Fold this sequence. Notes:
By secondary structure, the protein is mainly α. It has a domain at 1-25. It has one helix at 2-30. It is rod-shaped, with a radius of gyration of 14 Å. The chain starts with a helix and ends in a 7-residue tail after the last helix. The mean pLDDT is 79.
Amino acid sequence: MRLWIMIGAALVAAALTAIVLHLHPPAMRRLPGRRRI
């Protein structure tokens, strides 16, 4: 069903967003030159 695909996509997007938010500050500290994505 398309509903399950949409739910799965939303969960993946939320997970990736959480991972990026958690890993983004250390990445900025390690790479000061790449503050903007």
